[in-house]
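[SOLVED] Predicted holo structure with adenosine-5'-triphosphate

Edit: marking solved, answer below. Original request kept for reference. I posted the sequence and ligand SMILES and asked for the 3D complex as structure tokens.
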Amino acid sequence: MLRFEEVSFGYAGTPAIDGVSFVLGKGDFAALLGENGAGKSTLCRLCNGLLKPRSGRVLLAGQDTRTVKTSVLARRVGYLFQNPDRQLCKNTVGEEILFGLDFVLGEGYSPAEREGEKRRRLEEMLDLFHLDGSRDPFGLSRGERQQVALAGVLARKPELLILDEPTTGLDYRECTAIMEIISGLNSRGATILMISHDMEVAADYGRRALVLSKGRLTGDGPVREIMGNRELLSQASLLPPQIPALARLLGPAFAGVFTVEEMLARCREKAAVLKPGGGL
Ligand SMILES: Nc1ncnc2c1ncn2[C@@H]1O[C@H](COP(=O)(O)OP(=O)(O)OP(=O)(O)O)[C@@H](O)[C@H]1O
Ligand SMILES: [Mg+2]
């Protein structure tokens, strides 16, 4: 679905992405991790042709982003900005969700079919996110504005979804709701590349993790493998999620433990008995 080949990019001569290569297959769910300023947002903007590589190639479904129009790429790639307020531009939530749909639907609809399809997608998104289409997006909370921005992206049914910190600023309930929606899309075939500073979210939902540090790709592998590599994480100023970190402190008997369920199973295996009150 997405292929980076030795991609480099810089802003006004200052390198931001340096010789990055990786491949995302159809249906992958990759978390993109890295310190502040590592180049994560820049890498995402290279995926959909918003930025073009200074050297190397970015191929989206086999098409070179340097030669294909950004508007054509936009039909396949959905991009959620790091800050929803950069995305929102309409007076109501409904208009926001419908924005750009005409373009994405293309020529293959009669006027009546087109209106029907737009109405259907709008209703689907309002339902999915429990939104009121008549509200002014700028009267909503940060978390709600994030949901409106994501609803607008999903209404276009992209094959590749690029999410720049989709859960930042959300409370636990909002975060879980959004991640379940994204995870559902992935299980129906959408390819996901998600930047996250939240290692728990990345570990819970990503199957694969890419680590970017100072513009270079320093890690690419199954999420468990990457989260277990303390040296790699610490070089990118990242902390492992809590359960693998605890497992490490508990010693070799807990090696490989990654989830709460696995932690409990390992405790039972090691003949640890759960006492009333929750202690071991
Ligand atoms: N429009 C721009 N003009 C000039 N330099 C930029 C621009 N955007 C980003 N940079 C620089 O490029 C580097 C990578 O920035 P980028 O925003 O891609 O990092 P990031 O990993 O997304 O960081 P964060 O975690 O803070 O969002 C940084 O040094 C940043 O200052
Ligand atoms: Mg960023």
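OP edit: The chain has twelve helices and ten strands. Thanks to everyone who chimed in.
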